[in-house]
């Protein structure tokens, strides 16, 4: 299996470290053999900070509530071990949709190291991430182990300066 996790250095892209590849491989391995979540109902949640409000706790069961405990733990561990993660269609070097390309370009322009995961490589990963984030589309960006948003939120937060503030706080934490 090819590594989809790539570390951005601000310079030309370099291959992921063995530890990052192992971490991603462990995530994909734990996804294999799990029941598909494709048929389950999904709730679209807008990022509360973008709307200026907090979500109703009674309406939100939590990320990945419908996933197996092992799968939820594997995803949580992966996004916790990497400060900035973008789950995209394609790779950092070859995004395969315009929205993924937009996210890659924004993250590249910040100069912050980040990891990408190609969701096109594994149907269980793609379905599992949709359930985990309760966000139906890709790309999905996690910063500081929290779901930040998709391409639209990345564009808005980049334009407003919120993204650079969030990344700076995360990298200095």
Automatic annotation (TrEMBL):
Signal sequence bounds: none
What is the protein name for this chain? Monothiol glutaredoxin-chloroplastic
Q: Which InterPro entries match?
A: Glutaredoxin, GRX_PICOT-like, Monothiol_GRX-rel, Thioredoxin-like_sf
> Member of which family?
Belongs to the glutaredoxin family. CGFS subfamily.
Task: Establish whether keyword Metal-binding is in the entry.
Answer: yes
Keyword Metal-binding in annotation: yes
The GO terms describing molecular function are: 2 iron, 2 sulfur cluster binding; metal ion binding
Q: Species lineage, top-down?
A: Eukaryota, Viridiplantae, Chlorophyta, core chlorophytes, Trebouxiophyceae
**Domain named Glutaredoxin: residues:** 84-147
Query: Which keywords fit this entry according to its UniProt record?
Result: 2Fe-2S, Iron, Iron-sulfur, Metal-binding, Redox-active center
